[in-house]
């Protein structure tokens, strides 16, 4: 009941004070770095899951000199933060507006020499490449998206497709970091982890009152 009430209050806050920053061209300074958000691109400063991942990445979860993949990069915020310690980052999104947005934000934050942005669905643009770290803030609400922007929130098969392909793009000792919310289909994602034979554990957790956010570490079929 408490979480439901808080979600309603946050919804009202969004409608009254934040809606003008959603699906609009806006320059944000949240999450500790400047971000230009284009229309049609998920704005990570309006939703709190991205902040949990950014905080974790700043605690050296990405090893120095690692090769990193950011799946569903959106604005590119995770790719930009990871690039501060990574050797190289490949960021992928199926949304053309997100691809443009991520490239702009890599330039804006001075990491364009280490961030390559590609357009494509999940792992399709990789041609067998493997990475030390894979990052993902997935669409964790069940449902069929009607627009590219809704694809950042809703999916009917993302968990199964991501988990089935992940082992083919992880280095031998590589791992993935995925953020999930108790407000979404957390149980469905955990089932997909198990079905794909992935070992997983929670490496960060934050109770935001309206939801509980967990950062999962996924690895090849052994305890990471």
The Cα radius of gyration reads 16 Å
Report the CATH topology name.
Rossmann fold
- The fraction of residues in strands falls at 25-35%
Kindly report how far apart the N and C termini lie: 35 Å
CATH architecture: 3-Layer(aba) Sandwich
Net shape: globular
Helix content: 25-40%
Which class of secondary structure composition applies to the elements?
Answer: alpha/beta
> Regions with pLDDT < 50 over 5+ consecutive residues?
5-11, 13-18
Strands in their spatial order, largest beta sheet: 5-4-3-6-9-11-10
Largest sheet: 7 strands, mixed
- The number of helices is 6
Q: CATH superfamily assignment?
A: Vaccinia Virus protein VP39
Overall strand count = 11
Order of helices and strands: HEEHEHEHEEEEHEHEE
Please give the oligomerization state of what you see. single chain
Mean pLDDT: 87
Domain module tally: 1
CATH C-level class is Alpha Beta
